[in-house]
Design goal:
Number of domains: 3
Helix content: 10-25%
CATH architecture of the largest domain: 2-Layer Sandwich
Radius of gyration: 21 Å
Oligomer: single chain
Distance between the termini: 21 Å
Shape: elongated
CATH superfamily of the largest domain: Pseudouridine synthase I, catalytic domain, N-terminal subdomain
Strand content: 25-35%
Number of helices: 7
Structural class: alpha+beta
CATH class of the largest domain: Alpha Beta
Length: 237
């Protein structure tokens, strides 16, 4: 999978050598990228032609990032004993696991990957990564409701972070969060006496559902990988 990655990390992940040794090989001019001498600190995508002493190599495992449009009723768990779990639902030939959760009653964008560092960076609430949702409720959405949702709501013994909220129509609104408390949006709405009737996640950082049908998945494109890794570059693990 074409993710943007430091060349020394790529060589290490491929089992060629340590990152430190990779830097030495680069300094010695033994690594070329697209037939040009590599430089220290450079970033590459694995689809480029990378040679060591004129010979090619490849990582042991393809790095995968799937965008899944999860239907309602599917559980975001890797436990096979759980009925309707996401791993069996997607049934991808390479082992992948969900990045975070999307509760059983909700639908929309769920990421699945086998890239551990990606999961670690995206799961840390302190990195303030945006997730966008479209939410339908059982009562008319008022201006006061929107303002109070934006300012933070007391749930789960804390106050939710300030967030972006805008009304779409009489019983529907858009919300962008930078945290992921358990059933956060549903609990926020319940605090003000609203019941969520439909919740759909449509975006995580730069990744969006677009026209992906419910129940289907697709691989992230090279452009999406590169943009995502740029956004995550300064994120902690």
């Amino acid at each position: 999978m074409d993710e943007l990655i430091r060349l020394n990390k790529y060589l290490s992940d491929a089992g060629v050598c340590s990152r430190r040794e990779a830097d030495r090989l680069i300094e010695q001019g033994k690594i070329t990228v697209d037939e040009q001498p590599a430089t220290l600190g450079m970033k590459i995508v694995p689809s480029q032609k990378i040679l060591l002493d004129g010979k090619s190599f490849s990582p042991d495992e393809e790095k995968v990032l799937l965008l899944v449009n999860k239907p309602q009723g599917i559980e975001c768990t890797t436990q096979k004993r759980v009925k309707n779990n996401i791993v069996e639902f997607v049934s991808y030939p390479v082992r992948v696991y969900p990045v975070g959760r999307l509760d059983k009653d909700s639908e929309g964008l769920l990421l699945m990957t086998n890239e551990g560092s990606l999961v670690n960076k995206m799961m840390r609430a302190g990195n303030y990564h945006e997730k966008e949702y479209i939410v339908s409720v059982d009562r008319p959405v008022t201006g006061d409701f929107i303002r109070q949702m934006r300012q933070g709501v007391p749930i789960l013994d804390t106050i939710t972070r300030k967030c972006k909220v805008e009304k779409i129509n009489s019983k529907c609104f858009r919300i962008i969060l930078t945290q992921g408390l358990n059933r956060q949006i549903r609990r926020m709405c319940e605090y003000f006496g609203y019941r969520v009737t439909k919740l759909k996640r449509i975006r995580i950082l730069n990744l969006t559902l677009d026209e992906l049908p419910v129940g289907k998945y697709r691989k992230a494109t090279q452009e999406e990988w590169e943009k995502l890794w740029t956004l995550l570059e300064n994120s902690s693990q």
